Amino acid sequence: MSSTQRTAIVTGASRGIGAALAQRLAADGFQTVVNYVSNVAEAEDVVATIKAAGGSALAIQADVSDASAVEALFLETEARFGAVDVLVNNAGIAKQSPLADVTDQEFQQLIAVNLTGTFNGMRTGAKRIRNGGRIINLSTSIIGHYQPGHGVYVATKAAVEGLTHVLAKELGDRSITVNAVAPGPVETELLFAGRSSHIIQRLIDDIPLGRLGQPEDIARIVSFLASHDSGWINGQILKANGGRN
Ligand SMILES: NC(=O)c1ccc[n+]([C@@H]2O[C@H](COP(=O)([O-])OP(=O)(O)OC[C@H]3O[C@@H](n4cnc5c(N)ncnc54)[C@H](OP(=O)(O)O)[C@@H]3O)[C@@H](O)[C@H]2O)c1
Fold this sequence. Notes:
The chain has helices at residues 16-27, 40-52, 67-81, 104-128, 151-170, 189-192, 197-205, 215-226, and strands at 7-10, 31-36, 57-61, 86-89, 134-138, 177-183, 237-240. By secondary structure, the chain is an alpha/beta fold. It has a seven-stranded parallel sheet, sandwiched between helices.
């Protein structure tokens, strides 16, 4: 453990956007915790990739929807790496369904992971992150599109944006910034699940830059928000969507 090094936790970092965020923050010099809920092998692969590149990383299992598991995630991180400087609340799930067909279980699961999970991270982070630290949440730029089938997913992310604005004001006196990144379609399992190649092509056609986002596109933004250079950016939602507003 090094007290001079900074430490970051990325939730949901075993694959997709989170894996790229963890690798980028580790490359930036953070001791990085790769959180996951079930895919231990993929989380360990991310850790191995970071270590092979000379970085410092550790995989820690925790279901973000469980408040006590999130507390334990922080405690284990502190024991191994020291106090946390950056928390990225990235873990999330998506499910598309017309509102009339959403089951109670689907509704509760989306709320549990996307909203309660992010809240659990923000609440623990607000108490434990070092002064001058960063909390970065993942929203989505499809808020505002009001697309059929996305109602509950969008509701969870709209709530995350609300929490982001409020906590940014509450932690300002400790120089902790709280921001969110709102990606457009990014090439991950979450995006491809339940979408035909025809629908994916329609998405691409709708993006002025003519391509899907890559996890690394989001990692560059999170890298900046986690850095000292972003110190005057607080309470903002940064859209990264190739112009698909
Ligand atoms: N991809 C997009 O187009 C897009 C666009 C806008 C916003 N986003 C947001 O970006 C974030 C990452 O999305 P993604 O596309 O990278 O998703 P993904 O590829 O499906 O990966 C999801 C990650 O979240 C983890 N996770 C799921 N439930 C969890 C829980 N209860 N506790 C802890 N970790 C959990 C998974 O861990 P396991 O591997 O262990 O299951 C995995 O590491 C999400 O918040 C999503 O809403 C994505």
